[in-house]
Each structure stands twice: as structure tokens, then as C-alpha cells.
Amino acid sequence: MWKYFASAWRCRHFWFSLVKNDLQLRYRRSVIGIGWSLLQPLAATVVMCAVFHAVFHLDVREHGLFILCGLACWSFLTNSTIQGCSAYVQAESYIRQHPLPLAIYPLRTTLGTLIHFLIALALVTVLTWTLKGFDDSGTWTLKGFDNLPVFWAMVPGLVLYFQFGWAVATLVGYVNVVFRDTQHFFEVGFQMLFYLTPILYPPHAVMDTPVGWLVRYNPLTPFLNMIRVPLLSGELPSLRCYAVTCAITLLTTAVAALTLRFQQRRVILYL
What we know:
The protein has one domain. Helix content is 71%, strand content 0%. By secondary structure, the chain is mainly alpha-helical. The chain starts with a helix and ends with a helix. It has 13 helices and no strands.
């Protein structure tokens, strides 16, 4: 396994250039450029805040940050999966020409998604420091920086996000090569899962409802808390949150590694 990753690292300039080319092609001749990646979550947050404020009278500052952070995390998790489905199909010409480690192609999509994720988190961080600094009288104070003592807690969360996204992209990329309907299946599945994941609402709001158990055992909820809790609440994530996210990430990585170990040579046959 170490030899495999060493060979992938030796061709790092190749997959770095692929990530760079993907970003350049996506935003070529665009005035706003990569800023378009922030427009959708910002627009959705504004609309949702207006609706929730009008119907449930929720605080716009608190709930807006909650939604925006949730959408940023959700976008990374979903885009890593959906874009990962086409990782091998998109790289078919490279796979046929060069016997490089196949793990670099889902890594390519995961790194591109991670860049957008980091930009979105930077925006959420700035808005958190800005909006939470205002008190009831409208005077800005240093209260917005209350999360700085535990800001480092986001680092292991980001590492887990990256590793989980890479492993998932590796798995779904292989499955999509065999069954080309995989990407469409995940697109529909994520639409349903979106409303069962506490992105627009806090978990405690639905715990006493018939779908509360679905939210409680949703495997994506701990991943949201890994970023949300230190960023918005200024607290460390719970040990259970760390344990669950680590377990899910390790299990997914192990399955992805086994898939590459025993099925890598079959990819070219399905392509």
C-alpha cells in the first residue's frame, strides 16, 4: 500500500495540473470566476433565512450562519460523491495511455471540491466573526472571536472530510464504471437525504417527531458537527462525534483500498 501511494505521489505534478486545468476550464472567461461557487449557498441562505424568520421568527444572524455552514459542508460531501462518479469515465483517455495509480483520478475531483469548500468556510468564518460581534445595541465587540480558542479543532475535521471524500469518490467512481446509472441514483438519493440531514434546522427541532430517529442516526450529521460546533459555537466537538466520523472514514477508506487492490485492473475493461 505504501508503494502504491508513493507511486501516486511521484506523479503529483500530473494530478496537480489536472486540478488546475479543471478550475481554469470551469471558470474560463467568467467575470466573477470562482466566486460563483459561493453564490448558490449565499442565495439559498438568504431565501431560507427570510422564510424561517417570517414563519418561525428565528434570529437571522444565528440561523443564517447555521444554514450557510451546513450548505458548505453538504456541498463538499455531495459534490465529492456525484463528481467522483465520473472520475474514471472522465479520465478514460489518460487511463488508456498511462499505467498510473487509479487513485489519483478520484483524488483529482476531491481536491477540486476541497478548494471550493475551503473558500466557502473562509466566507462563513468571516461572517461569523462579523455578525456575532454585534450586540443587541448594534455595537460591534470582540465577541465574534469567541471561537478562536477552539478554532484548531476544525483541522482534524478538514482532514477527515478530505479522506472521506477521496475514499467515497474512489468507490462510487468504480461502481459507476460498472453501472452507469450510479450517478443519477446518488443525485436522487441526495435530494431526499437533504431534508433528513440537519442543514436547515437544528437536530433538536425534530427529535420528538416520527423522523427524529432518522436524523439521529444519519451518518452525515457527525460530519456537519465536526465543522459547525467549533466554528459557530466555539466549542469542541463531542468525543462521540470524533469517534463516529473516524470510524466511518476508516471503514470507507478500507473498502476503497480493497476495491483498488482487487478491481483496479477491471476498470479499463468496463471503460
